[in-house]
Design goal:
With about 375 residues, this protein is mostly helical. It folds into 4 domains: about 140 residues, Arc Repressor Mutant, subunit A, CATH 1.10.10.10; about 70 residues, no CATH class; about 60 residues, Arc Repressor Mutant, subunit A (Orthogonal Bundle), CATH 1.10.10; about 55 residues, Arc Repressor Mutant, subunit A, CATH 1.10.10. The chain contains 17 helices and 11 strands. The strands form 4 sheets. It has a 3-stranded antiparallel β-sheet. Helix 2 crosses helix 4 and helix 13 packs across helix 14. The termini are far apart.
Length: about 375
């Protein structure tokens, strides 16, 4: 077995954030293990190859699955013993604990990996998951949400009710607003509620141990807790809402259309809507032009405002033909209007050629041309 003595960090061992390079750390740790232990570690945790079961690895070496479990435990103990011998591992451990403290003592696994480390390849990511779940257990406790769909890490010994309290207040805010919000809007509303003044002593103890402004730490805490929560979720456009909302977890194509149009904030051609749905990555199911077009036609949330161009009715657009729009405009104004005045108002509702509006005005059953080139409603 090859053993590794304390390793000093050189510049080439640092990543772009100034922390230890993951590839360098993997090399260090594997050099401390025997070839068999390296092979079992790679197979068991999916590093450089797919994950294998204990039984599969046991068959490879002609031993029982229980024997592989014992070897796995021995490997973990060896690597844990490196905490005080390998400077890279010590630095990484210290930095991760600092990160978790700054984010309120509780951090979701994906959020931690994505925000703490630089871009990782698949093998490095698997190695990081291995370190978090097996090597840093003295400092971080791995847990799962009630539904078991999320893994998160909590500082060992950290017990706080702030997670539940903050998430409850966020849900109350969302239910009151009834639409997804970005993190800054949520924080602004939490500020009005003075939530930061009511955090528990355990969380406040973490804040006091750090040389960082409490308002900055609170923002990080809220962001972290939102990712941990199984009640709220961020949609593909980065807005937070309750998990059950169609604007957060859209299932039907019509709901995806709504999100895309709402994000764009302007009318779009149905083919552009299809493209945006596919680029947004709601799920693996690809949208097709014909499907999107059909949904736009049958759902009364959408209004045809041009040739193949649709808008949200909630933006103030009216349904109906151009003649219907003109009639509504004149009726609301209560006075006769010139062509230019009618054109200006119709342009706010429809993306049509001037000639289409002029043609509609020739319908003498609906409109009368009176003096001074103005048009009024025909008498019925």
């Amino acid at each position: 077995m090859k053993k590794n003595t304390t390793v000093q960090l050189d510049n080439h061992d640092l990543d772009e954030k100034g922390g230890p390079s993951m590839s360098s750390l993997i090399e260090d740790i594997f050099s401390y293990l025997s070839e068999q232990e390296v092979d079992i570690t790679k197979k068991r945790f999916g590093i450089f190859e797919r994950k294998h079961t204990l039984e599969e690895i046991g068959k490879t070496y002609g031993v029982t699955r229980e024997r592989i479990r014992q070897i796995e435990g021995s490997i973990v103990k060896k690597i844990v013993s490196l905490n005080q011998k390998n400077e890279k591992l010590k630095e990484l451990k210290t930095s991760i604990i600092q990160f978790v403290k700054e984010y309120g003592g509780i951090v979701e696994e994906y959020f931690l990996i994505e925000n703490f480390f630089k871009e990782l390849n698949e093998n490095e990511r698997s190695f990081v998951e291995f370190l978090l779940s097996k090597i840093l257990i003295e400092d971080l406790v791995q847990e799962k949400t009630d539904g078991g769909n999320k893994v998160f890490y909590r500082l060992n010994g950290f017990a706080s009710n702030s997670l539940e309290k903050i998430i409850k207040e966020v849900v109350d805010i969302l239910e009151e607003v009834k639409e997804p919000l970005n993190i800054d809007d949520i924080l602004e509303r939490l500020s009005i509620k003075k939530t930061i003044e009511n955090i528990d002593d355990k969380l406040l103890e973490i804040y006091n141990s750090l040389d960082v402004d409490n308002s900055i730490l609170f923002k990080k805490t809220v962001e972290s807790y939102l990712h941990v929560s199984s009640v709220v979720k961020k949609n593909v456009f980065g807005l937070w809402g309750t998990k059950s909302w169609k604007t957060v977890s859209p299932k039907r194509m019509s709901d995806k259309i709504y999100l895309v149009l709402n994000k764009a904030g302007k009318p779009l051609h149905f083919k552009d809507i299809t493209k945006m749905i596919n680029e947004s990555g709601f799920d693996k199911k690809a949208a097709r032009d014909v499907t999107v077009h059909n949904e736009l036609i049958i759902d009364d949330r959408y209004v045809l405002v041009g040739r193949g161009i649709y808008a949200l009715k909630s933006w103030g657009y009216r349904s109906g033909a151009v003649a219907d729009i003109i009639e509504e405009i004149i009726r609301e104004k209560g006075i006769a209007m010139t062509k230019s005045e009618i054109l200006e108002e119709v342009s706010k509702q429809r993306m049509v050629k001037d000639s289409t509006v002029y043609l509609s005005l020739t319908n003498d059953k609906r409109f009368n041309k009176i003096s001074a080139g103005k048009y009024d409603l025909a008498k019925k």
